[in-house]
Amino acid sequence: MRRDLSSDDPRILTLTYTSSATTLMSVTQLVELIEQIRPKNERLGLTGLLLYSGGNVIQTLEGTSYAVDAVFDTIRADARHGDVRVVDRRLVDDRSFASWSMGFRNVSAREIADLQDFNEFARQSVGHDLVTHAAPAFELLETFRLNTA
């Protein structure tokens, strides 16, 4: 799904993907993982947000094409992720999560159910025709970005 994006382009690459955890992670395990990820992201100039709910992951990565692609290649090869699907990949002028080396939220099923526009996406198991559900996925990311800022 990678497109040739010029390294001379001053814009930021934003990549949003979904995946299913191969084994459920506890909140403690998730927090430890995020604490490991943040220093590397800071070194690479990556920002973003990771949402986890019942084994489902949606994450946005932002940064240079090189850094985003390198981290995403690592994620795709990570045995903890299954059914990794790109929802969106594009160049943008500004970051959506500029102040977060990696924002994180463990989202409850109730919180997802309360987002009416997100219900259809939530009912779909991760990986089923996500392109048609990209807008609700971004709305979810935006909702949590605003509520946890």
Description:
It comes from Nocardioides pinisoli. This is BLUF domain-containing protein. InterPro entries: Acylphosphatase-like_dom_sf (IPR036046), BLUF_domain (IPR007024). Pfam families: BLUF. Residues 12-103 form the BLUF domain. The structure is a single chain. With 149 residues, the chain is an alpha+beta fold. The protein has a single domain, classed as Alpha-Beta Plaits, CATH 3.30.70. The protein is built from five helices and five strands. The protein has helices at residues 27-44, 65-77, 109-114, 119-123, 134-148; strands spanning 12-21, 47-53, 56-63, 81-92, 103-106. A five-stranded mixed beta sheet has the order 4-1-3-2-5, sandwiched between helices. The longest helix has 18 residues, at 27-44. The N and C termini lie far apart (31 Å).
Q: From N to C, what is the helix and strand string?
A: EHEEHEEHHH
Distance between the termini: 31 Å
Number of domains: 1
Overall form: globular
Record field, number of beta strands: 5
CATH architecture: 2-Layer Sandwich
CATH topology descriptor: Alpha-Beta Plaits
